[in-house]
Write a structure and sequence with these properties.
795 residues; alpha+beta; 7-stranded mixed beta sheet; 6-stranded antiparallel beta sheet; 20 helices; 38 strands; 29% strand
C-alpha cells in the first residue's frame, strides 16, 4: 500500500524523520518496500495565468501566449498544449528554472517567436508518468506562488508491503493506529458525524445469500453534479497513493478506501430496477464489467443484482450498465461487509485483481460500514452536491463474525520471547492496539477488536507484544545448555548398526504398513491368530501383521512387476502377537526381516550370473549374527518353518532360545502370491541381537601355532555344526582355530555317507607344543567323534 507521509502525519506525527519511521514500520512487521519523492527535483516553477493566447503565425499546433507570473511584465511563451486557453491558471517554468533530468529553461525562439519559459504538465514536473496537457490549477490560486509550495511537494511516498494477515492496515487509519502504538502517541481520530437525510428516497435491500454478505448498506443521493471537479487536495492524496483521478464520485469512494480501508461503490440509481438483491450468480450468467469485458459467472460468485439483472461482482468489480456516467443524476451508494471466504479467489478466477477484492478477501472490519457510508456521503455532498436519503441496512447479525476473547499468560509470554516485560507495559501495548484488556491472576484477558482478523490464539498476542515492544529491544542472549553424560552400555548393539550392515550387503530398506491383507497373511501363516482391526482403512488392511513377511513380499511383487530382476529388501519394525499376559493383550516384538530373489549380482562381463540360493541368504544372516562377536552362542538348525520349503528352512537359536528363522519360500506360496523367482527370506527378533560380546584383551602367544588336518567319514544326516561344536569342547584352550574346509561325496565314499575335512590349529600361550601334545589332542578329538557320531578317519 502506498501513502503520503504528510497524510499519515495528519493522523499521528512522531518525532522522527522519514528513514527512522520507515525502519520502525519494517521492524513492526509492516515492511517498507520503498520511499519515493512525490515529484521530480525541480526549481523555478511558479503559478501563472494565461492572459492572452493567439495562433502562432508559422505553426498550426502552437500558440503564442502572454502569461502573468506576478512580475512587472507578462512573459511571452510559446505553447503547444491543446488545453492552453485564456484565463487558465498554469505552472510556469521561468527562464533559469531547472526541471527533472537537469533540464534547464533558457530563452528561446520557436518558429521565430520568442519564448521566455515553458508551461508545464504533471509529467514534466515528475508528478505523473503521462499527462494529456498542461497542468490546470484552480482559479483561486495565488499568482507567482512557487509550485512546490502550493502542492506541498516536500513529501515522500511510502510503499508498505503488507502480509495477508494485516488487512487492518490497508487504510491510513490502520497505519496511523500502528504508528501511534509504536510511539505511545494518541492518534487524531477522524470525527465522523451522521449526515441528516434531507429526502425520503430509499431502496429495498434483500440478502439472499446472507452467509456471504451478512451486512449491506445503501443510500440514495439525488441531483449530483457530475461536472464538479474533485478538490485538488483529494486528487493529490490519491495520486500519492498510486490512484489516478477519474471523476468526483469515483474519487470520493477511492479516497474513503484509502482513508478507512473500506471499499465502496456507487451505482447509477436509474439503472436499478426494483431493489437490491445480494445473491449468488446463476451458472454462466453474463455480466458486462466497467472495463468493457464480459464475464460468464459461476454459482460460487456473489453478485449485487436488482430484480432483473446482476449489477456488479460483489466486492470485486462493478458492471458497466449500472456504472456512474456523465448522464447520471442520482446514485445509490453502497457500503457492505462480505465474508472473506466468499471473495477469496473469485477475482483471480476471472483474471481480475482490484483494490476492493484485495481488501475483502483479507478481511474488512464488519463494524466499519456505517462510518464509511457517512464519511463518503459527507464528502460527496461537499464535492458534487445533491440531497441524501436515509441509510437502509440489511443485516443478518447471527452471520456476522463473533467477538473473540484471548487469554495471555505472563509466564508463557516471558518464556516464548525470552525476556520479561512489565505487566503495566504489556497492558499499555495491548490497550493501544485497540484491545479491551483486564489483568488478573498473572494473565491478561483481551477482547479482540473487529478489525483484527489475525488475532485468535495466545501466540498471536505474544507476537503483538514482541513486535510493538521492539525486537531490537529484546536482549540477544545466547542459549545455554548443560552437557550431561548419558549412560551407555557398550555391550548394546544399536539397531542402526544392524540396518547399515544390510545396506552394505546390498539390501534396500522398505517401510510397509503394520496392518496387512488377511488373505496374504493367512497364506504365509495359516496357523496365526492375528489381531483384527475394528475400523480398518480397507479390507486389504484389516489385520495386524504377525511377521514382516506379508509387507516385504508385497513390496517384492511390486518391484518384480516393474522389471526389477534383482531384489534385496529388508525392514525393521514390530510384529503383533496376541498374548493375554501382555499389556493390552498384544505382544509387540521388534524384528528385522529380509527377502532376496533374482541373481546374486548385477549383470557383469567378468562375473558368472547365477540365482541366489539358501547359502547366500545364510551368509547374510551370519553377517548380522557376527555383529555380536559371539558366534558360539548362535546355532542354525535345520527345522520346518511355516510358509517355507520343508527342505530349505532353518531356525536360528541363541543360547538355545529360538530368535528367528530363514529359508526358501514354499513354491506353492510363491505361486499364490504371484512371485516369479525363487525367494529366500529371514526374520530375527531384535532382542536376540541387541547384546554383543565385548572383546577381552590378552597377550599374543610368542610360541608357534601348529595345524593338523583330519578327514572323517560320517552319515549324511549328521550336522557338521554339531561336529565342530564337539571338537571345540574337546580341544580346550589349545585349540585356537577350527575350520571345515571340504565336504565330499562320491567315489571312495559309501552311499549315505560324506567326508568332512577339518583343519585344527593348536597353540599354547606358555610353551611350544611338542608332537606328543598335538597328537594327544587330535587323538582325543577323533575318539570323541567316533564315540558320539560313529565317525571314522578317512583312508
Amino acid at each position: 500500500m502506498k501513502f503520503s507521509e504528510k497524510w499519515l502525519r495528519e493522523w499521528v506525527n512522531p518525532n522522527m524523520d522519514t528513514n527512522a519511521l520507515s525502519e520502525q514500520l519494517s521492524m513492526a512487521g509492516l515492511e517498507v518496500d520503498g520511499i519515493d519523492p512525490v515529484a521530480g527535483d525541480f526549481t523555478g516553477v511558479v503559478i501563472g495565468e494565461v492572459i492572452s493566447a493567439e495562433q502562432h503565425p508559422d505553426a498550426d499546433k502552437l500558440q503564442v501566449t502572454k502569461v502573468n507570473v506576478g512580475e512587472a511584465e507578462p512573459l511571452d511563451i510559446v505553447c503547444g498544449a491543446a488545453n492552453c486557453r485564456v484565463g487558465l491558471k498554469v505552472a510556469v517554468a521561468k527562464v533559469g528554472a531547472i526541471l527533472p533530468g537537469n533540464f534547464k529553461i533558457k530563452k528561446a525562439k520557436l518558429r521565430g517567436q520568442p519564448s521566455m519559459g515553458m508551461l508545464c504538465a504533471f509529467e514534466e514536473l515528475g508528478m505523473s508518468e503521462s499527462s494529456d496537457g498542461i497542468l490546470e490549477l484552480p482559479q483561486n490560486v495565488t499568482i507567482g506562488q512557487d509550485i512546490r509550495e502550493y502542492f506541498d511537494l516536500e513529501d515522500k511516498i511510502i510503499d508498505v508491503d503488507l502480509t495477508a494477515n494485516r488487512s487492518d492496515c490497508l487504510g491510513l487509519k490502520g497505519i496511523a493506529r500502528e504508528v501511534g502504538v509504536l510511539n505511545s502517541l494518541d492518534v487524531q481520530e477522524l470525527v465522523i458525524e451522521a449526515v441528516v437525510p434531507t429526502i425520503d428516497d430509499k431502496i429495498d435491500i434483500e440478502l439472499v445469500n446472507s452467509d456471504a454478505c451478512p451486512r449491506y448498506l445503501g443510500r440514495v443521493i439525488k441531483n449530483v453534479n457530475l461536472d464538479a471537479q474533485t478538490p485538488l487536495w483529494m486528487v493529490e492524496k490519491l495520486r500519492r497513493s498510486g490512484i489516478r483521478s477519474i471523476d468526483a464520485i469515483v474519487d470520493v469512494t477511492n479516497y474513503v478506501l484509502l482513508e478507512l480501508g473500506h471499499p465502496m461503490h456507487a451505482f447509477d440509481l436509474a439503472s436499478i430496477k426494483g431493489g437490491i438483491k445480494v445473491r449468488s450468480a446463476e451458472q454462466n450468467e453474463e455480466l458486462l464489467l466497467l472495463d468493457g469485458n464480459t464475464v460468464k459467472l459461476d454459482a460460487s460468485t456473489l453478485v449485487i443484482a436488482d430484480h432483473e439483472k446482476s449489477l456488479a461482482m460483489a466486492g470485486i468489480f462493478g458492471g458497466e450498465k449500472s456504472g456512474v456516467t456523465t448522464e447520471t443524476k442520482d446514485i445509490l451508494l453502497e457500503s457492505a461487509f462480505f465474508s472473506p471466504l466468499a471473495i477469496a479467489g473469485q477475482a483471480r478466477k476471472y483474471g481480475l485483481h482490484t483494490d476492493a477484492s484485495h481488501r475483502y478477501e483479507r478481511g474488512v472490519d464488519h463494524q466499519l460500514q456505517h462510518d464509511a457510508m457517512e464519511r463518503a456521503t459527507a464528502l460527496l455532498l461537499t464535492v458534487v452536491g445533491g440531497a441524501a436519503g436515509p441509510v437502509v441496512e440489511a443485516v443478518a447479525n447471527e452471520k456476522l463474525p463473533k467477538s473473540k476473547t484471548v487469554t495471555l499468560r505472563q509466564s508463557r509470554l516471558n518464556k516464548v520471547i525470552g525476556h520479561v516485560i512489565s505487566q503495566e507495559q504489556v497492558t499499555d501495548i495491548l490497550t493501544r492496539l485497540g484491545l479491551t484488556v483486564s489483568f488478573d491472576n498473572e494473565q491478561w484477558q483481551a477482547d479482540i477488536p473487529s478489525y483484527r482478523f489475525d488475532i485468535s490464539i495466545e501466540e498471536d498476542l505474544i507476537e503483538e507484544v514482541a513486535r510493538v515492544y521492539g525486537y531490537n529491544n529484546i536482549p540477544n542472549v545466547a542459549p545455554k545448555a548443560a552437557l550431561k553424560m548419558t549412560r551407555h552400555n557398550e555391550a548394546d548393539l544399536s539397531t542402526n548398526k544392524v540396518r547399515n550392515t544390510l545396506v552394505t550387503l546390498g539390501y534396500q530398506e522398505a517401510i510397509t504398513y503394520s496392518f496387512v491383507d488377511p488373505k496374504v497373511q493367512s497364506i504365509l501363516h495359516p496357523s496365526a491368530n492375528p489381531l483384527v482391526l475394528p475400523h480398518p482403512i480397507s479390507i486389504e488392511m484389516s489385520v495386524m501383521r504377525v511377521s514382516m513377511l506379508p509387507g516385504l513380499l508385497s513390496s517384492q511383487v511390486y518391484n518384480q512387476n516393474r522389471q526389477q530382476a534383482r531384489i534385496r529388501l529388508f525392514e525393521h519394525g514390530l510384529k503383533f502377537i496376541k498374548d493375554e499376559s501382555a499389556e493390552n493383550g498384544v505382544l509387540q516384538t521388534p524384528v528385522i526381516s529380509g527377502a532376496i530373489s533374482g541373481s546374486t549380482v548385477g549383470e557383469h562381463w567378468d562375473v558368472a550370473t547365477r540365482s541366489v540360493d539358501f547359502f547366500d541368504l545364510k551368509g547374510d544372516v551370519e553377517s548380522l549374527l557376527a555383529l555380536t562377536a559371539d558366534k558360539s552362542s548362535f546355532e542354525i538348525k535345520a527345522e520346518q518353518v511355516e510358509g517355507l520349503h520343508p527342505g530349505q528352512s532353518a531356525a536360528i537359536y541363541r543360547n538355545n532360545k529360538k530368535i528367528g528363522f530363514l529359508g526358501a519360500l514354499h513354491p506353492q506360496i510363491q505361486t499364490k502370491l504371484d512371485i516369479n523367482n525363487q525367494t529366500f527370506v529371514f526374520e530375527i527378533e531384535m532382542l536376540g541381537l541387541e547384546t554383543r560380546k565385548l572383546p577381552l584383551a590378552q597377550d599374543i602367544s610368542k610360541f608357534p601355532a601348529n595345524r593338523r588336518d583330519i578327514a572323517i567319514v560320517v552319515k549324511e544326516e549328521v550336522n557338521s555344526g554339531d561336529i565342530l561344536t564337539m571338537i571345540e569342547n574337546v580341544g580346550g584352550n589349545q585349540l585356537v582355530e577350527l575350520n571345515l574346509f571340504d565336504v565330499y561325496k562320491g567315489k571312495g565314499i559309501d552311499s549315505g555317507y560324506k567326508s568332512l575335512a577339518i583343519a585344527l590349529t593348536l597353540q599354547n600361550v606358555e610353551r611350544t607344543l611338542e608332537e606328543k601334545d598335538i597328537n594327544l589332542v587330535v587323538d582325543q578329538v577323533v575318539a570323541s567323534l567316533a564315540e558320539k557320531f560313529n565317525a571314522s578317519l578317512r583312508d
